[in-house]
């Protein structure tokens, strides 16, 4: 299977400039021009899909680059470390969001409890 950069980008749901950006970052290789057009294969599509999935899990492009290098070297220990770091960051973010949700619920209850004075929700966000 051979595809142009636009077909590769479309297959991953990104635009062409995103593919080029990943190439500049060293996450995707840039194939040679054959008959004036660069052609990408199934391996390129899989790699682009991996990058997008890893981003969806919250990995940075730097971490994704390291994961790609680790895959080539079969370093599962470091891959597990990166995953554990990401899990810890997600756990922290979840805790922060749960705290924010709890605070907003309290404000909503206070707002509902009375029609007197300023709305507690608006007052809380005014500073």
User: What's the total count of β strands?
Assistant: 2
The main β sheet shows up as: 2 strands, antiparallel
CATH architecture of one domain: Orthogonal Bundle
How helix-rich are the residues, as a percent range?
Answer: over 70%
- Return residue spans where pLDDT drops below 50 for at least 5 consecutive residues: none
Please outline what is shown here:
By secondary structure, the protein is mainly alpha-helical. It has 6 helices and 2 strands, in the order H-H-E-E-H-H-H-H.
Task: Explain what this protein looks like in three dimensions.
This is Mercuric resistance operon regulatory protein. By secondary structure, this protein is mainly alpha-helical. The chain has a domain of 59 residues: Multidrug-efflux Transporter Regulator, Chain: A, Domain 2, CATH 1.10.1660.10. Strands 1-2 form a two-stranded antiparallel ribbon. The longest helix has 38 residues. The radius of gyration is 23 Å and the shape is elongated.
